[in-house]
Write a structure and sequence with these properties.
Elements lengths: L27 H4 L4 H36 L5 H12 L3 H30 L10 H4 L10 H13 L8 H24 L6 H42 L3
């Protein structure tokens, strides 16, 4: 499903930015897909998902500390129940619903951004066939690196002078992958029928690390959404019609 690669000879090497009238941008305005609404929706849902993760972690810590203090004889059963009630609000299905909603809207944004990238740099500016834009996230093993390639190629085709993303996308993708692995370890830990004090401590630590990585990945992908969207929108506004 790969397209042949042709280095950086797609269109005009100087095309890009908010400057207008480059050969690479000719006719782009007519083919441009608006991204502003999708980008705003994706940003809102990602932020809501991150807030949910943070509050879930706060709830885990409240339960853990309440248990620790109860064993030390410094809190009452009512205080433990209060912490448990707070944590019980954050159920697996609520978190999954937020992740699915944010993921679907982000993929809709990415699909449109990919079409715009093709209009700017040509289909051969993208290493992967169009179907990988969505499918790569769902294919085992391939989802470890192909989504990163897709977003990287969209970035390059959209950026002024086809600039490389530097460490931004690599850091985002690394946090996403590692956070996912730590998150699965956290889920396995909390699914145990009975949790010892040590098991509860491990679950809280794993959840905290997973949330920290997810927050960093989320902030970075929001940055990517707004950066790519801004480039593509400005180039559409400046392109010959």
């Amino acid at each position: 499903m790969n397209h042949p690669q042709h280095g950086t000879t797609f269109g005009d090497e100087g095309a890009g930015g908010s400057g207008g009238g480059s050969a690479g941008d000719a006719g782009y305005a007519a083919r441009h897909r608006a991204l502003t609404g999708w980008g705003a929706a994706a940003t809102a849902l990602i932020l809501l998902t991150l807030l949910y993760d943070v509050l879930l972690t706060v709830g885990d810590w409240r339960v853990y500390l309440a248990v620790e203090h109860y064993l030390a004889g410094t809190v009452t059963e009512e205080e433990i129940q209060s912490a448990d009630d707070f944590s019980a609000f954050f159920t697996a299905w609520k978190g999954a619903a937020l992740i699915v909603a944010a993921g679907l809207v982000f993929l809709a944004w990415l699909w449109r951004a990919r079409l715009n990238a093709e209009a700017l740099g040509g289909a051969r500016s993208q290493r992967r066939a169009r179907g990988w834009t969505v499918g790569a996230w769902m294919v085992p093993v391939a989802n470890l690196w192909i989504p990163y390639q897709v977003v990287t190629d969209v970035w390059k085709a959209s950026a002024p002078r086809r600039a490389n993303p530097g460490p931004v996308l690599a850091l985002w993708w690394g946090c996403w992958l590692i956070g996912g692995m730590v998150g699965r370890a956290y889920t396995y830990q909390v699914m145990q029928e009975t949790l010892s004090e040590d098991g509860l401590r491990r679950a809280v630590y794993l959840g905290t690390v997973s949330t920290a990585l997810d927050v960093l990945a989320g902030v970075l992908v929001i940055h990517v959404v707004h950066r790519i969207g801004g480039w593509q929108t400005r180039r559409a506004a400046a392109a010959p019609r």
